[in-house]
Structure to design on (740 residues):
């Protein structure tokens, strides 16, 4: 036990004192924020570009439908021949020309209106034009069948569904997007952590092997102790980094919500109608975040991170022991990455579609994918026994995997100069 | 208890390959014991078994009369053939760490490090990193790591390979000092000449079998052929040659001498004594060189290996 403690401390200090670790811990959150801001800025830049569309509408059916606004200017080119109009639009580099055939039949028009443009037009512009056309044609049909348009408009009803859980917690559609975001981010972060820290373990095993210090160490301690110490020490470094980020995130959330004057207490006692009328969109998003089970998500993240990390890093350690240099690890990396990627894809497609669907549930039990998939499910609410079962399977697998990895590790660290095949690794397992 | 380390019928197999075959050995206390053999003979396998890095398939090893167990780790110091240290770790922290793994407390380890730093004249290396040191300096650190916890049994696997001549000599002197202070030293090498200089005892291993073991000078006695090297300035060379042929078995000589003397080897029969030969030679010229030929470990080894084959 004393030796294990010594090894853990050495490994922890070796990780934490590393320059890359310090840089990653303190700069990457800033880098992330900067990235988000940059993307937001570039997107807004893209959207403010003014668009010009010419309209060729001899029958003047859509005269009233196309009114120029801030983002799109509509010009009437109906007086020109179609060919001339197209040439002119192309020469002036407008975004496109909308051609409406001379026909009174809405049924015919719905299928035969054309849009000409130099390049493929942007989706937002097309949907805008589409919406306008279909609204106008719908009105035409309604009028043709004798419906009073004013009565029709006043009969239209907007529904705002009040979503509430059985336990009485109010949520909104926005809240489920936020859950998606938090679940996805947690799952993705976990995968990154496993890959980054698993690689650290692997590199440190290879380092000891190529430095030839490993034989001196295992003349004092058991290989199993060395491997466990390495995995534990590195995991503490990971937890340190995670805690620093949590504190950063907490400060950020606190200062931003302070800025918008949001706190869970101040919102209690208000009816949802009040909320909708009084809070801006930004405030409601923040409120949803504050109302998320953040503590439970963080705790679960920690537990699943530690177990998932133990599972994968013991495999990484075994690989590190089996090879002589990092370039030899390629052939063994693939089988590690597959289940992690699978977890992420199942998470992003299946969990978000239906957090309690069969596929999502099954993958949150399979130990190689459960850390990622379960984390994505947790913000949507998962029964405690499901988490417990998934954890129990995971823990059993972790113990079994560490046992197998230790066998490969024990043999591998004393083997120099040859790159083992899968067949040989299997033989080491049976030694 | 006379012997510090005893191995009885130790065997180790890797798959179908036999690394050690019923290997037995007894290493007396406070001696330097050399295990000799070509690469792949099984030396490192035996050393790893003593260090409990690998377990023997059969056979037993005793340290100080007790069956080898994890508690003995602190009594053994090991310098492996494949050696190295953490490159980016500070020298002091590194030695401290490895000494603590051997069971020393932090305080003990610190005072011992200071003692060795003074003894090997390396004052202010504590905060240096191994990658900043020269190879010779790093080897000194490696040596300190091996001996710091004052082990009863010191194991050096090819101790002089990779050391520069100055460090090698320093290490050699330190090894002798450690022996005089009570340590028992086991070292393995394929360089026969280092055994001649250092070892009290030796064992020859070839193809995982022990060929011979015992005190170095006894083995040499056993293998000596009663041959003497002679260099003489004869009064009459022709006459001397004839007389020698009649009385002694003369062999061609191939040793160097600074004079242009008549040089030859004489192998004495059992009934003849060295004094007889000496008296004879003194009568026939001025004798410049008279030495008994003692077989080198290398000769013995080659002799044994060819017999074995």
């Amino acid at each position: 036990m004393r030796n294990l403690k010594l090894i853990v401390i050495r490994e922890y200090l070796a990780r934490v004192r590393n320059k890359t670790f310090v840089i990653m811990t303190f700069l990457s959150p800033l880098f992330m924020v900067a990235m988000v801001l940059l993307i937001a800025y570039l997107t807004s830049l893209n959207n403010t570009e003014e668009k010009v569309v010419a309209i060729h509408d001899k029958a003047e059916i859509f005269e009233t439908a196309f009114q120029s606004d801030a983002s799109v200017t509509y010009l009437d080119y109906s007086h020109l021949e179609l060919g001339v109009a197209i040439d002119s639009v192309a020469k002036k580099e407008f975004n496109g020309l909308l051609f409406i055939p001379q026909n009174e039949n809405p049924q015919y028009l719905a299928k035969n209106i054309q849009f000409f443009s130099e390049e493929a037009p942007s989706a937002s512009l097309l949907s805008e034009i589409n919406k306008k056309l279909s609204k106008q044609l719908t009105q035409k049909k309604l009028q043709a069948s004798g419906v009073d348009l004013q009565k029709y408009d006043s009969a239209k009803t907007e529904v705002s569904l009040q979503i509430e859980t059985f336990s009485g917690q109010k949520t909104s559609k926005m809240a489920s997007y936020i859950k998606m975001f938090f679940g996805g981010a947690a799952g993705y972060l976990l995968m990154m952590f496993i890959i980054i820290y698993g690689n650290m373990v692997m590199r440190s095993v290879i380092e000891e092997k190529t430095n030839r210090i490993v034989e001196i160490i295992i003349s004092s301690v058991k290989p199993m102790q060395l491997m466990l110490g390495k995995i534990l020490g590195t995991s503490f470094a990971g937890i340190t980094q995670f805690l620093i980020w949590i504190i950063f995130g907490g400060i950020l959330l606190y200062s931003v919500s302070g800025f918008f004057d949001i706190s869970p207490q101040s919102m209690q006692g208000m009816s949802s109608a009040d909320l909708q009328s009084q809070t801006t969109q930004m405030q409601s998003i923040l409120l949803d975040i504050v109302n998320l089970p953040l503590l439970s998500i963080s705790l679960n993240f920690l537990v699943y991170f530690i177990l998932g990390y133990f599972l994968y890093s013991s495999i990484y350690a075994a690989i590190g022991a089996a090879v002589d240099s990092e370039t030899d690890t390629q052939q063994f990396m693939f089988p590690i990455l597959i289940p992690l990627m699978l977890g992420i894809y199942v998470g992003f497609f299946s969990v978000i579609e239906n957090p309690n669907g069969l596929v999502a549930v099954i993958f949150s039990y399979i130990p190689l994918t459960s850390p990622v998939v379960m984390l994505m499910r947790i913000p949507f609410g998962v029964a405690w026994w499901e988490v417990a079962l998934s954890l129990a399977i995971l823990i059993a697998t972790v113990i079994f995997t560490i046992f197998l990895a230790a066998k490969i590790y024990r043999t591998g660290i004393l083997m120099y100069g040859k790159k083992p095949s899968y067949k040989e690794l299997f033989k080491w397992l049976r030694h | 208890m006379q012997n510090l380390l005893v191995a009885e019928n130790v065997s180790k197999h890797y798959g179908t390959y036999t690394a050690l075959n019923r290997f037995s050995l007894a290493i007396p206390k406070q001696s330097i014991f050399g295990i000799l053999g070509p690469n792949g003979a099984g030396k490192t396998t035996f050393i790893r078994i003593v260090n409990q890095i690998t377990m023997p398939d059969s056979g037993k090893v005793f340290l100080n009369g007790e069956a080898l167990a994890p508690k003995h780790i602190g009594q053994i110091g090991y310098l492996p053939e494949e050696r190295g240290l953490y490159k980016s770790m500070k020298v002091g922290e590194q030695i401290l760490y490895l000494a603590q793994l051997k069971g020393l407390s932090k305080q003990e380890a610190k005072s011992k490090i200071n003692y060795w730093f003074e003894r090997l004249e390396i004052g202010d290396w504590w905060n240096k990193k191994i990658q900043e040191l020269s190879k010779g300096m790093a080897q000194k650190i490696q040596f300190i790591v091996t001996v710091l916890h004052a082990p009863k049994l010191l194991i050096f696997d090819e101790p002089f390979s990779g050391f520069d001549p100055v460090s090698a000599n320093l290490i050699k002197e330190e090894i002798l000092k450690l022996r005089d202070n009570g340590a028992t030293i086991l070292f393995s090498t394929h360089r026969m000449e280092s055994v001649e200089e250092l070892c009290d005892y030796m064992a020859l291993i070839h193809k995982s079998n022990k060929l011979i073991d015992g005190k170095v000078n006894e083995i040499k006695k056993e293998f000596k052929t009663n041959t003497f090297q002679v260099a003489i300035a004869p009064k009459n060379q022709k006459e001397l040659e004839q007389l020698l042929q009649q009385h002694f078995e003369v062999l061609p000589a191939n040793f160097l001498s600074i004079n242009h003397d008549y040089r030859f080897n004489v192998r004495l029969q059992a009934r003849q004594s060295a004094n007889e030969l000496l008296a004879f030679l003194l009568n026939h010229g001025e004798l410049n060189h008279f030495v008994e030929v003692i077989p080198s470990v290398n000769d013995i080894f080659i002799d044994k290996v060819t017999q074995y084959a």
